[in-house]
Amino acid sequence: MIKLKKYLPILIGSFIILGLIAFSFIYTYYIKDTLKPPPKLLYNEAGKLIGTYGYPPSLNYIFGVDRFGRDVFWMVIDGAKYTISIALVVRFMRVLFGGLLGTFYGFMNKRIFGFIDPIVNAFRFVPAVIVLFPFFELLNGQFDKAKEKTISIQLTLLIKIGR
Questions:
Q1: H-only helix segments in 27-162
Q2: DSSP for 60-93, written as a single string
Q3: Average pLDDT of the residues of the chain
Q4: 57-76 burial by CB neighbour count: b if 16+ within 10 A, else e?
Q5: For residue 163, how many other CB atoms are within 10 A of its CB?
Q6: pTM for the full predicted model
Q7: For residues 90 and 83, is the Cβ–Cβ distance under 8 A?
Q8: Which of 33, 40, 116, 136 is the most buried (most CB within 10 A)?
Q9: pLDDT digit string (tens) for 53-80?
Q10: Can you point out the beta strands (E) in 6-53?
């Protein structure tokens, strides 16, 4: 029982992540086609027009509706599988490459440390967002043309630069 208590936060977090992924797939394949889209015009109890698309969160629409008439809550649920999958791929690749580079670095000649250490230390103090932002800006207009290539470049950058 004591050991289970020790790992309780990890178990709870894992169940939340697995639940989000499962719910995202259930939504995509079973629920998505059965939901009615939000009404274009929103009326109050008295029948007076109070808004159109782009209305704020309410009891009916937990995260609100964007200006294109999409329920933001269901968009987040639908995109959860992609976001979590990308995060898991990036994490796995970083652990793999980090282990390989750490092993190489551990067996390396000590004289080479004087050349590599300043480069590694410089990247510890520069936020990864500052390094990645110019690359993502260059890829911004390219997404529709070559989706798979753009995604692979973004994943490669996140794996190499991320911390």
A1: 72-106, 113-125, 128-139, 147-161
A2: SSTT-B-TTS-BHHHHHHHHHHHHHHHHHHHHHH
A3: 83
A4: eeeebeeebeeeeebeebee
A5: 7
A6: 0.70
A7: no
A8: 136
A9: 888 888 888 998 888 888 999 999 999 9
A10: 41-43, 49-52
